[in-house]
């Protein structure tokens, strides 16, 4: 099996189109990666998200962040309950800290050098839908909304297949999670890491600080710049260099709780690219697209059958997510 750093690369096509035996083999590979590393890369997902669609998503992402600041600020993120809209550089500081005081100290000493655009499900089709609406640049980028809504839906479909693979490997039955993630309470995040002086990062900052993700699994589409690092079992950070036509998949904290620590939510960060030109004083601009998949908002997360004595009390998805988001954002 190929790897990028410590991250395995798995061919997902046999799970999507193969025999039951082939599906089981891929499911077990995926499960092993999620228990050993907590990160993997999937290739051959073209039947769900073709490379041309990913390329278009990056083009749309760049167009959005190239808009004038006064346009983006009109779409500003407002509250963790909504978790939608534009987040200017410095407003979020991802970390494992939970103390407001500690996070504000980190924000002052080593801010995250990034800006983001947060997008949720854009239509109402059930009793538990969020009352909040997305914030779109409809006048300036009329094609942005329909494209991102479709990309959101396609990422959800891939997320469902990943959850089916994990359920199959865990002996829960392939459809175990289907009605627990069908509300599509996810977050599509577009990220822009502007070109900045390398000295700012070399002096202790990060493009994104060390953190774990919050939900079930994250899908991360990287450009070619690099900078993602994954923490290994010894506590060292190892580069996960971009691999063409793959999507990075990592386990989130709620899925780790759900699995009673069987599946591993791994610390990661974004730093200077490992392969950059050391003589160049400025970083390259970096764009990435993350799809933070979540259980249904009112799903009670309690340890799955067959995972041993529960290590965690049950928690409601929405309450957990709002708490985590509220800790890492400034008003």
TrEMBL record:
Q: Pfam families, from UniProt? A: 2OG-FeII_Oxy (PF03171), DIOX_N (PF14226)
Q: Which PROSITE patterns match?
A: FE2OG_OXY
Q: Which UniProt keywords apply?
A: Iron, Metal-binding, Oxidoreductase
SUPFAM superfamilies per record: Clavaminate synthase-like
Q: Where is the Fe2OG dioxygenase domain?
A: 184-295
Single annotated GO MF: oxidoreductase activity
Keyword Transcription regulation in the entry? The reply is no
Name the record gives this protein: Oxidoreductase,Oxoglutarate/iron-dependent oxygenase family
Which organism was this protein described from? Rhodotorula toruloides (strain NP11) (Yeast)
